[in-house]
Amino acid sequence: MRNPQNSDNEVIKTARPLILVGLFILFFVQVSAQNGTINFSGNWAINESKSKFGDAQFRMAASVLTVKHEGNNLFVDRTLNSPDGQEMKMTGKYTMDGKECENAGFMDSKTKSTVKWSADNKSITIASSTVFNMNGDNMVMKATETWTLDGDKMLKIETSNTMPDGEMKTSLVYDKK
Prior knowledge:
The protein is an alpha+beta fold. It has one helix and ten strands.
């Protein structure tokens, strides 16, 4: 007659490797999903009711963003409204590897930027420096934008712009069109 306790031990010995393999696969899938790269591509419109624009005399926030995120490249077309109501367009091309990129800025200036991923690969930070001439004086504006996605329908951009006369912070929310 077989000892039922021995039979149970054999089942446990047989099942243990299968359970360990199953747990390993589950862990691997979860870690891979967490390390998946975010893609910021899309047409985005400012959500004015959810955004906080700071205390500036006029908004420097784009009303529309068109973003193409392809591999290591980020292409951003920004549509802004000037203080006199004129529509302005700015285009930027960035690499996502921390190398410096140069793009046209406002008032015939050049903007130098670097883009870096966060440690958890869930956001990017664009750090920029723009030197421009205002009434014969060179001024430097430093800007930082941190982009995160809230699901796949909302883009949040936290900004900080620093100029000689102070700092302005905004919290911008864009809805995917």
